[in-house]
Every structure is written in C-alpha cells, then in structure tokens.
Amino acid sequence: MRGALRTWLAGVLSGTLLSLSGCGGGTPVPDITPPISVNSGSSSPPSIFQQDTVRIGVKNNQPGTSMQTPTHGWIGFDVLLGEQLVRRLGKPGIDPPRFGDVTSGEREAVLTSGGEDLVIASYSITPKRTDVVYFAGPYATTYQGFLVHAGDAWLNSLDDLKGRTVCSWGGTTSQDELVLQSQVKGYTVMSKTDAESCRVELEEHRADAVSTDQLILYGLANAFPGLAVAPKVTIGVPNVYGVGIKKERYEDCLRIRDFLKGYVFSSDWLQDFRNSLPTAGKPESYLPKPTDIDAMSCKALPHQDQVVQAPTPSETPVPSESATPTESATATPTPTESATPTASAAPNES
C-alpha cells in the first residue's frame, strides 16, 4: 500500500472504529438464517458456514469499500457486509471471517480454485461472470464516474475529456467502456493495476481524471481531500454489486441471498453505508430494487445479443432515478441518481 494511504489510515482508524462500535438502534436485520445440514448426502460440498472460519476476498486499497489498515485489520463497506453475513449465518462459535487481498482480474479464479470461499470486492454481477461463478445480490448499485482534482471545473460532460488522459485499471469493463468512447471523444486511456495506482497518477498530474464506479471514487475523495468526484458526469449503465461464490456451493448461495433480502433494506445496511462512505450522498440512491435480489442471485444470467457501437458525440448517459426505501436518510443527495438494471440487463463489470 502506498505511503499516503497508510498515513491517512493511521489518522482515521481510531475514529472509524469508535463510530462503528457506537452504532445501534433502528431496524435490525431479521433472523432469517436457514437451516444448515452438515452433510445431507448430496453432491453439494459441506457448508462454508460450518467451517471454523470463512475466507473472503476483498480489495486492500479502496477506502470506503474495503482496505487493509496499517495494523493489518480490514475496514470498509464490503468488509462490514462480510462480517455481518458470517456472524448471522455461521455456526455457533465461528471465528470472524479471514479477509484476503484479491485483484479485479483474479476474482473468478480465486473462487473456482478454492482460494477464497467468497469474494466481496466491489464485484459487479454480469451475465459473463455468471457463466463461471454465482452471485448473491445485488447489495448495492452505482454508476461509473470520474475523479478529478478538487476545485477543477473543466469536466461537465464526456465531450470535455477531449485531449485529456483518463486512468483506469484491468480486470474490469470500465476500461473497455472508456476505450470504446475514446474513439469519438478523443481522450487517451491510461491503464494501471488498481485504484491506488490511478490515484497516484492523478495526484502527480500524469492523468487528468480517474474513472471507475462512483462508490469507489467517493471513498477515494473522502480519504484524499485534494480529489473530488465530477458531480454530473457518468458513463455506461449502472453496476450492481454481489457476493461471489463458487457454483458448487449453490445452497450457501441461497443462504446468502436470503440474508441479503433482510440486510439490504434494514437500518444495518444504512448504518454500514454511512459509516463507510459518509460523503457519497444519499444512501438510498445506491440501493437495488427489492425484486433484483431474487432475479439475479444464484443463477446464470442470460446474455444479450447486441452489437456494441461507439456512441455518437451527442450521446451522454442520462441516469434515471432509483427506488427509495421507506427509511429516510440525512445525507446530501448524490450528484447522479442511479437506477438498477433488471435481471436481463448487462451491467458493466467492475
């Protein structure tokens, strides 16, 4: 992890932990833990929730979503979700989850090889990925946006990127989307290895902007006050985050799905979001539709037969409004109100 990130972590870790330990009240997650048979005699492997611990792959340098602290602990929205589901679904006395670093490009591989039991790493549900692994979710939705220097006013539309350099990283289709649109928008795509690498390129003025999911960008902007999310510029369709799991663990996938159906629309989700991403805007605008969890969980999603064409210069994504839960929030609105695609849609991979 880069030195600047470690310095920031050391300064905020104690306050973050105090905030988390003081949370309470509201509507808790209902107890929907399904029964677990240790060995049903079927071909399904034993439940991961009967193990002594559950191994979860997360990102190690994405402030707000998941990152490793200087003392080798883990904090962030994805981390809190992992802790919640293991605590709720695990056997009595199960140890806390064991988190491990995973990059964008290796998420499917660590699941299919058994290197991790679950992956919760800003992991978008897409038809292509469900050919290889299953997902439970979504538990959040977000548009792809742009990170610039705080105070910059030059980026108000995709047309403003002409002649600029935009940084992204491999293992996602965020970069594919950028390359596609660069053909008509006239900017250069810089490819790096992860969010932290692109953040450094931006701060050292070798890139004019960083592009990935807005949830990730708001976490970076909160950690590094010299950076800011461009308020009105998005690209592509919404990404929907899920919990990745090996296909052979279908029954465990269903258990996680049922847990998420209670958690995502409870005050626990709202509390975890606010603690992890306090500057991301209205938490409600990142909620999926209630019906999407059943529609997109634990199955292979159909691929769309379509020809992908470069957009015309006049085409700029126009986000639509998302559903709002019954519980109100006090945070300020996000610049872009996002909408969750239906199960037949093909969100970008991130």
Radius of gyration, whole Å:
19 Å
Classify the secondary structure makeup into a structural class: alpha/beta
Helix content class: 25-40%
Put simply, the count of helices is 10
How many angstroms separate the termini? 20 Å
User: Number of domains in the coordinates?
Assistant: 2
Order of helices and strands: HEEEEHEHEHEEHEHEHEEHHH
Beta-strand fraction estimate: 15-25%
Question: In words, what does this structure look like?
Answer:
The chain has 350 residues and is α/β, with parallel strands linked by helices. The chain folds into two domains: 3-142 and 238-296, D-Maltodextrin-Binding Protein, domain 2 (3-Layer(aba) Sandwich); 143-236, 3-Layer(aba) Sandwich (D-Maltodextrin-Binding Protein, domain 2), CATH 3.40.190.10. Helices cover 30% and strands 18% of the residues. It contains ten helices and twelve strands. It has helices at 3-21, 77-89, 107-112, 127-130, 174-185, 195-203, 214-223, 250-263, 267-276, 290-296; strands at residues 55-58, 61-62, 66-68, 74-75, 98-101, 118-119, 134-149, 165-169, 188-192, 209-213, 227-229, 235-245. Strands 1, 5, 6, 7, 8, 9, 10, 11 and 12 form a nine-stranded mixed sheet that branches. Mean pLDDT is 82; it is low at 5-26, 37-42 and 306-347.
